[in-house]
Amino acid sequence: MTAYLAKRLLIGLATLVVASVVVFAVLEILPGDPARLMLGMNATEDAVLALRNELGLNQGIVMRYLTWTGGLLSLDFGRSYTYSVPVIELIRERSAVSLPLALIALALSTAIAIPVGVFSAARRGRPADTVAMGASQLGVAVPNFWFALLLVYVFAVWLRLVPAGGFPGWGAGLWPALKALILPAVALALPQAAILARVTRSALLDVLGEDFIRTARAKGLPRRTVLWRHALRNAMLPVVTIMGLQFAFLLAGTIIIENVFYLPGLGRLVFQAINQRDLIVVEGVVMLLVATVIVVNLLVDLSYAIVDPRLRHRT
Amino acid sequence: MSLLEIEKLSLDIGTLPILKNVDLALEAGQVMGLVGESGSGKSMTALTIMQLLPEAARATGSVRFDGAELLSASEERMCALRGDDIGMVFQEPMTALNPLKTIGEQVAEGIRWHTGSNRKDAETLAQRMLERVGLPAERFPLSRYPHELSGGQRQRVVIAIACALKPKLLIADEPTTALDVVLQAQILDLLRDLVDENRMGLLLISHDLAVVTEMADRITILRNGEVMEAGDTAETLSAQVHPYTRQLAMASMHVPERTRMHRAVEAGPLLEVKGITRDYPVRRDSLFHRPRPFRAVDDVSFAMAPAQSVALVGRSGCGKSTLARIILALDKPTAGTISFRGDEITGRDQAALRPARRDMQVIFQDPYGSFDPRQKIERLVAEPLHLLDKRPTAGERRERVAAALHEVGLQPGDMDKYPHEFSGGQRQRLSIARAVITRPKLIVADEPVSALDVSIRAQILDLLADLNSRLGIAFLFITHDLTVARAITDEVMVMDEGRIVETGKTGDVLSSPQSAAARALVDAAPDLHRAIAHRMQEQG
């Protein structure tokens, strides 16, 4: 078990190193000079050159990579070209929006998907199942930004229950802040919940066909009890796997959703930074997202071992 | 009033009739054998009693348990009966237990559900029950998970679950089919003891006439959902009044006719195995101590002559399949060498192995699992032809496939069909056709008939014996079933814990086994003749 964990951890670190090279290289290839962009089209060559020197852009590519990764290790992500503040400050500030948003969305999607999946599996082939799976098909098909606009139209413009966008900040109180996050979270969660519900249903149906379900029924347990006690935990492996994968999509989804709702989160930060060629910010945020995804997948691997005793012994 | 009374039971699933007017009665303390081939409706009869049928099933007639009608019983009533008054044991012990729950939890669960007792009391009872079925707490604590147990041990857990609350009726659906003969004898003994202890009624479902004869007081023979014959076991099987009963009995004792070919002894043996050893690494539990590897095959040596038919028998886990894989060059030995047709084949690369592979083919146990369902028979049977030096043209390929199909008693036209269009027996013929298409010198057959019904099994044995004598193909049969060995082999090798412990003429070894391992196998092997004689004697 320890060996298994150590191995997963090493793979995670290696992935992180590879990701840093890729992120750095890709942004190097991108056209556009940050110094030129910051100073505007009318700046003199001398001024641009001076700024490039100040930003360290004239150093060799290897040197810059090493300085950058060295900084990452001590949580020094460098200074933003456009905001002139340390990138880590920006990340901290924006995470306060994005992290709760992602977590609420994840919780929401799980809370919807698993009961719906169980409900459908228990009523396989009956009208209730058909309706639930039809709805989930729709959920899979609809893009989340379009769905977000629909939500804004209904709940913000028409019913006037929640704001259509923007974020008052946590300083404005818990409820106003949460209210601003509800619609984006729903918009992120529902398409994911639709996929997860289908996965839950099919994993459960697979398990319900297993021999040990029959053994449990032969003990005298009613169908429902067997479903919850014996089938669900066995069906969790594929469900947890998909949840881990979905988390990465959830983070990517925040970039679009935060733009739709004008939320000052990491997604919006990255989007603006790309437009302004604020490469150092883009690099920092992307690395943070990569690290998050790796950690989440490590947790998924860990949870396999918790769910399945057979994996605890494997190395 | 009988414990279980089934009258005029008919069952349809959708529009498909499964059972027709089945009658069956079982008294307390009695063992009723329900015999039939696959698809005869044995398991469906069991599931009807349990009311665990698929949703599309419609049953008519009457099933009374302890005087109460079950067909019209509510689901709550059935839940109260299942696992309390009626227990059930299933065929496949490897998958019958929830892999994520400990054996203690799984045995205690039913106890708690029915008696409402607390966890501690239920676990005490579960512990006692596990001890009763031969899983003492010192070696098998309640905290064990199913994957830490062998097949026979898992079947004991399933029996403990079914019998924990001393049911009046136990239904055992092929409880020993997946186990080797020694384990089978142990499990059957256990079931018989439980019947005697608690005056439990046992409905024993099996395709194996010998097993049922040994166990059952009365027998019901089922075919295509209809009762062919029913009555006292000894009488029914000694008189064999009904033609189907006779057919079943004949098939289960079938010995193919073999014309011995006394060929001129060719130069040297066909296959020579010298000092083969195979170690598997064992999981280490400590950082400083490397555990000794597990020795699956231990210094095995033997030789086979061309056209010889040899059985390699042993209990499950004795290393016989590992040895077979090494002979087929699918696995590398830790030590030792194998020569085939005089050439050493151990340690050769794949390209160098091609000529040997061409002359060496394999037949597996499961005719369902060994074919890709999306490919046509022509492609499946022609698969080994890639081993030929010259690629056959499309025409040649079809010709060779047609010839191979003809050899195994199928039609050349069958090559354009898909595997699902064939029955189990026909599929096993297909896998034999695939094995003979390159005209090999040796076929390794791993339990080639254990998944088949007795009548089909008799036909396949005939076919294998015929291929052996007509085409001069040498056969190495890997089996735990001595009747197969007796039927079609000249020599038998008994394997135990990785070693070959006894070798000799098949007849000699089976009639007077010398080693403990061989004796255990012979004693445990169910034998219809012996069982009938024993029953007749008992009844005077």
Q: How would you characterize the overall build of this protein?
A:
The complex is a heterodimer of chains A (315) and B (540). Chain A is an all-alpha fold. Chain A has 13 helices and no strands. Chain A has helices at 2-29, 34-39, 45-55, 61-73, 87-122, 127-141, 144-158, 174-208, 211-218, 223-260, 266-275, 279-307, 309-312. In chain A, α5 (87-122) packs parallel to α12 (279-307), α6 (127-141) crosses α8 (174-208) and α9 (211-218) crosses α10. Chain B has 540 residues and is an alpha/beta fold. Chain B folds into two domains: 4-252, 3-Layer(aba) Sandwich (Rossmann fold), CATH 3.40.50.300; 307-332 and 349-532, Rossmann fold (3-Layer(aba) Sandwich), CATH 3.40.50. Helix content of chain B is 37%, strand content 24%. Chain B is built from 19 helices and 20 strands. Chain B has helices at residues 42-50, 75-81, 103-115, 119-132, 151-163, 181-198, 209-215, 233-239, 243-252, 320-327, 350-358, 377-382, 394-407, 424-436, 454-471, 482-488, 506-511, 516-524, 528-539; strands at residues 4-13, 16-26, 31-35, 57-65, 68-69, 86-89, 169-173, 201-206, 218-223, 226-232, 271-280, 294-304, 309-313, 335-340, 343-344, 360-363, 442-446, 474-479, 491-496, 499-505. In chain B, the strands form four sheets. A six-stranded mixed beta sheet of chain B has the order 6-7-8-3-9-10, with helices on both faces. In chain B, α6 (181-198) links the parallel β7 (169-173) and β8 (201-206). In chain B, α5 runs parallel beside α6 (181-198), α9 packs across α15 (454-471) and α14 (424-436) packs parallel to α15. The longest helix of chain B is centred in the middle third of the chain and has 18 residues, at 181-198. Chain B is globular and about 70 Å long. Classes of the chains: A mainly alpha (315), B alpha/beta (540). Chain A binds chain B through residues 210-212, 214-222, 225, 229-230, 233-234, 307-310, 313, 315, and chain B through 50, 52, 75-76, 79-84, 87-88, 90, 92, 95-101, 106, 109-110, 113-114, 145, 147, 158, 161-162, 283.
